[in-house]
């Protein structure tokens, strides 16, 4: 992408600095945009990894990603923040824009300090002011998400008769959208009869998956976990 978001004149970068950044279990060195401290959001989530001006709702504002996984910006007089590890599912690019897909507390917005409430899916759109900035933001966001060790491939057992016959609706309304927002690949196996899940588990190549999800009542879970413990013992982790 090479668009500058429709701006007649891109805002020039203030300065360039080379430094080594530590994030998760790896380190990288790069040339990145730096901003005056007076313009940089004072974060509590570690040192800034990347900070640059972006468009948010038509207004230019500083956006900062920290080593602690905080994504912070301002909207008017309000300071906004997202915890990448706990709230950000994934992101995608739409032309010159970055669309962050997250799960946040319900309300009219998010803030660094606020009351807890029900969690809802919500998207946030940032528009870097140059194609180089867009590429760098995508790179650093993906590197941080990858450092979290999240599952990328899941096998899902779905029992349409489980949970008072609500399992299929739960999967379609709640589970599937979250997996797609997080860019998780998945295979769905609908169970047809008792012990069907156990039969499938016996022939399943678990090396192809990072985990197994059961959308069902307790019966399918017991079948799958019981067989997994039989094969792998204490190496099995149940959440």
UniProtKB/TrEMBL annotation:
PANTHER family: ACYLGLYCEROL KINASE, MITOCHONDRIAL (PTHR12358:SF31), SPHINGOSINE KINASE (PTHR12358)
Gene Ontology biological-process annotations: sphingosine biosynthetic process
GO cellular component: cytoplasm; membrane
Region (Disordered): 1-22
Record EC number: 2.7.1.91
DAGKc domain mapped to chain residues: 149-239
InterPro entries: ATP-NAD_kinase_N (IPR017438), Diacylglycerol_kinase_cat_dom (IPR001206), Lipid_Phosphate_FormReg (IPR050187), NAD/diacylglycerol_kinase_sf (IPR016064)
Gene3D superfamilies named in the record: Probable inorganic polyphosphate/atp-NAD kinase, domain 1 (3.40.50.10330)
GO molecular function, one term: sphingosine kinase activity
Top-level taxon: Eukaryota
Keywords per UniProt: Kinase, Transferase
Keyword Transferase: yes
Keyword Transferase belongs to the record: yes
Pfam families: DAGK_cat (PF00781)
PROSITE patterns per UniProt: DAGK
Protein name: Putative sphingosine kinase 1 isoform X1
């Amino acid at each position: 992408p090479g668009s500058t978001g429709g701006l007649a004149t891109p805002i020039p970068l203030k300065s360039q600095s080379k430094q080594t950044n530590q994030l998760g279990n790896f380190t990288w060195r790069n040339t990145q945009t730096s901003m005056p401290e007076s313009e940089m959001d004072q974060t509590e989530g570690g040192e800034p990894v990347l900070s640059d001006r972006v468009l948010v709702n038509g207004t230019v504002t500083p956006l900062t990603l920290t080593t602690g996984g905080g994504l912070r910006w301002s909207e008017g007089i309000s300071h906004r923040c997202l915890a990448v590890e706990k709230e950000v599912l994934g992101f995608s690019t739409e032309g010159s824009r970055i669309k962050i897909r997250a799960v946040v507390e319900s309300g009219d917005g998010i803030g660094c300090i606020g009351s807890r409430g029900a969690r809802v899916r919500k998207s946030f759109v940032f528009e870097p002011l140059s194609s180089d900035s867009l590429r760098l933001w995508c790179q650093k966001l993906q590197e941080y998400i990858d450092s979290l060790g999240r599952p990328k491939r899941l096998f899902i057992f779905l029992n349409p008769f489980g949970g008072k016959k609500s399992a299929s609706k739960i999967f379609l309304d709640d589970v599937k959208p979250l997996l797609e927002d997080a860019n998780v690949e998945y295979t769905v196996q609908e169970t047809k009869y008792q012990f069907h899940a156990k039969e499938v588990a016996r022939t399943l190549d678990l090396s192809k998956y990072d985990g197994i999800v059961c959308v069902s009542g307790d019966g399918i879970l017991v079948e799958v976990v019981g067989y997994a413990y039989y094969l792998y013992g204490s190496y099995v982790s149940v959440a």
